[in-house]
What we know:
By secondary structure, this protein is of the alpha/beta class. It folds into two domains: 6-26 and 180-239, no CATH class; 52-179 and 240-282, Vaccinia Virus protein VP39 (Rossmann fold). 23% of the residues lie in helices and 32% in strands. It has helices at 30-41, 52-65, 82-89, 101-113, 155-165, 246-251; strands spanning 6-7, 72-76, 93-98, 120-124, 137-142, 166-177, 185-193, 203-212, 217-225, 230-239, 255-262, 275-282. A seven-stranded mixed sheet has the order 4-3-2-5-6-12-11. A five-stranded antiparallel sheet has the order 1-10-9-8-7, with no helix packed on it. Helix 3 links the parallel strand 2 and strand 3 (93-98). Helix 1 (30-41) packs across helix 4 (101-113). S-adenosylmethionine (SAM) binds next to helix 3.
Amino acid sequence: MPTSRRPVPSAIPPLPSPFDPAAELDWGAAVYGRRLLREHLDQSHDSASRRTKVITAHVRRLRRLLPEPPARVLDAGCGPGFYALRVAALGHDVVGVDVDRAALRHARALARERRAGGRLAFRTADLRELDLGAARFDAALLIYYVLENFPRRQQPRVLRRLRRVLKPGGRLIAELRLRPDRPPGRSDWWDIVPDSLLSDRPHLLLGDSVYDTRRNSFVMREVAVFDDGTTAVLQTSGWLCPLASIPTLFARAGFRVDAIHDGWSSRRATPLSETVLVVATASG
Ligand SMILES: C[S@@+](CC[C@H](N)C(=O)[O-])C[C@H]1O[C@@H](n2cnc3c(N)ncnc32)[C@H](O)[C@@H]1O
C-alpha cells in the first residue's frame, strides 16, 4: 500500500519506476477520496482539476466540437463533474463515470444544487472495464490526464471500451499530453506543506520525477517525511503517445481520427504541442 508508513530511507527505491504498483496512486482507493477532492477543488493550482475559468473557456470550445444538442454525451473520468455539469447546461444529456466515489458524490451534489435534473447522471465505473449495458452515446469526452495515466498496453483497451458505448459515427474528443510539465531526465524538489495527498498534517514533502523521452513515459513521485521519521510514498505515471502514433492507437480501437488540434485551440497540432485534442469518429 503506497500510504503505509515505512522507515526512511531504506524501503524507498532510489529512482521511481513508472507504474510501480507498490507506489502508484489508485484513484479509486477510498483512503485518498477526501484528499483528492480537496485537490480537485483547490482554485490555486490545476493539479487534479483545472480552475473554473479555464474549464469555462474549454466548454466554449467543446460546444463547437460536440454534436448539436440534445446529444447523449459520456464524460469518461469525469472527476467532480466540472466539465459534465457545463456540457449538460448546453442542453446535452450527460453521464459522467469515474472510479473515485468521493468525486462522484461531489458531482451529484453539484448537479442537485444546479437543478441539472434528468440531463445529468453519474456512475462509478473503471474505464478499463466500462460496461454501461444497452446505453449508447453520440459523443464521449476523455479530458485532462485520463488516457495517458494508463500504461501503454492498457490505452487501446480503454479506447475500445469507449468505442463500444458509442453509436456508430459517434464522436470521441480526447485530450492527450504529448509531454509532461517536467523536464526530460530527472528533476527533484522539496517543500514543507500543511497537508498533501499523503497526509492531513504538516510534513516535509520530497518530490522527484523521471521523464524518459525514449520510452515516452514519466513518473512523478512524492515522499512525505513525518516528525517521527517515518515516510509515505505515492506516485503518478503516464505513457505519452507520440503525435505520429495517435492515429494508429485510435485505429486499433475502432476510431478514425478526424483532427488533432494544438491543445484547446483550433490550430493543427505539431510535435511541439504540449497537449492535443483528438477528435475521432467511431467506425460503423
Ligand atoms: C486529472 S482528473 C480529471 C478529471 C476531469 N476529467 C476533469 O478534467 O476535471 C483524472 C480523473 O480520472 C479518473 N480515473 C483515473 N483512473 C480511472 C479509471 N481506471 N477509471 C475511471 N476513472 C479513472 C480519476 O479518478 C480522476 O477523476
